[in-house]
Amino acid sequence: MRLALLGCGTVGSEVVRLLHHQAADLTARIGAPLEIVGIAVRRLGRARGDLPVPAGLFTTDALGLVKRDDVDVVVEVVGGIEPARTWLVEALRGGKSVVTANKALLAEDGPSLHDAAAEGNADLYYEASVAGAIPLLRPLRESLHGDRVTRVTGIVNGTTNFILSSMDATGAGFSEALEEATELGYAEADPTADVEGFDAAAKAAILASLAFHTRVTAEDVFREGMTGVTAGDMASAKEMGCTIKLLCIAERGPGETGAESVSVRVHPAMIPRSHPLASVGDAFNAVFVEAEAAGQLMFYGRGAGGTPTASAVLGDIVAAARNRLSGTRAPSESNYAHLPVRPIGAAVTRYHINLDVDDKPGVLAAVAGVFARHEVSIATVRQSGREEDAKLVIVTHGAPDANLAATVDSLSQLDIVRSIASVLRVEGGV
């Protein structure tokens, strides 16, 4: 089975090494040897360590490599939207199997890839696009196909999880924790995609599409980054027996008209320390899946890095190669449900609201009146005072996001409210 590899960076290099080191085992598992017939790179002549491949395999003509008649499987680990989309659509329409780790492309324009795969009667595998080495997408795509998934909650970005775990453990602020993550190599020089939730939102779209048999794109995902989480928020969470994680949440439920719909969002949230996701520390990933028959399932492991991601890529290569040898295809895209995506304003969530207010009689009554006026019920209130100032910490029952937004707007107009220190969503059983 002949492979064309697009990209030879951190992940691509590890794919080459694993293909070489495990060649005998892979041949036995597939029933035929795997051979790399070309590697497309941006620049020739760049030092690539001790890669066990001849220099003649490298080319800068990725599209020409994809079009070659002697290629069975195209493996893409370049990333980005273009020109990767052009390459993969060409490969799929030409009947070549595709293995990709490109979460951004799948989240933005996965439908064009799936349509091209159907047109070319070709396989499209992308296990490595979410949660690195963790076997997650194939269970959603195949193992749970006989069940009804109701909710997927996950920590799918290692950089942000490391930062929040460090803040929780040491009491550090965001800037200090980000600096530590950068020094240890967990954060990129420009961490925007991670800390602002773009990376997690792309993965949330892929997970929701598979879980709910509905095409969900990155544009459908509500996204809120975690740069506003403070050491004070972490301290408040600890007082409640919680911690804060950047979660991707996809759930099935009734929409505004009562018909079934899905909600997909990424944002920082408090979760109780008793929840399995609360103990996921460092740069690890974990995804918690709830299904009607299977119940609660959790997938945990290393969600990034060259070797873990290459492991997932190789698993897909083996599956694609086996299918080509046997003349079969992988399960095609399942998007029969066509469920609408609920806007964030209709999503029902609980909230933790931290207010700095005047320390005088009647403050709590005035604040509670604002909540009542916007039909947001209060679960608990904690009040502390110091001289002229006081702090109110309020946890609500479930309320639509739109109601909470209107409540916060009204609170900011009260003379007795000096500032709204923070508003955090609360997930789990607090």
UniProtKB/TrEMBL annotation:
Belongs to the homoserine dehydrogenase family. It catalyses: L-homoserine + NAD(+) = L-aspartate 4-semialdehyde + NADH + H(+); L-homoserine + NADP(+) = L-aspartate 4-semialdehyde + NADPH + H(+). Catalyzes the conversion of L-aspartate-beta-semialdehyde (L-Asa) to L-homoserine (L-Hse), the third step in the biosynthesis of threonine and methionine from aspartate. InterPro entries: ACT-like_dom_sf, ACT_dom, Asp/hSer_DH_NAD-bd, HDH, HDH_cat, HDH_CS, NAD(P)-bd_dom_sf. Keywords: Amino-acid biosynthesis, Methionine biosynthesis, NADP, Oxidoreductase, Sodium, Threonine biosynthesis. This is Homoserine dehydrogenase. One of its GO terms (molecular function) is homoserine dehydrogenase activity. Pfam families: ACT, Homoserine_dh, NAD_binding_3. It comes from Paractinoplanes rhizophilus. SUPFAM superfamilies: ACT-like, Glyceraldehyde-3-phosphate dehydrogenase-like, C-terminal domain, NAD(P)-binding Rossmann-fold domains. Residues 352-425 form the ACT domain. PROSITE patterns: ACT, HOMOSER_DHGENASE. Its EC number is 1.1.1.3. CDD domains: ACT_HSDH-Hom (cd04881). Pathway: Amino-acid biosynthesis; L-threonine biosynthesis; L-threonine from L-aspartate: step 3/5; Amino-acid biosynthesis; L-methionine biosynthesis via de novo pathway; L-homoserine from L-aspartate: step 3/3. Its cofactor is a metal cation. The keyword NADP applies.
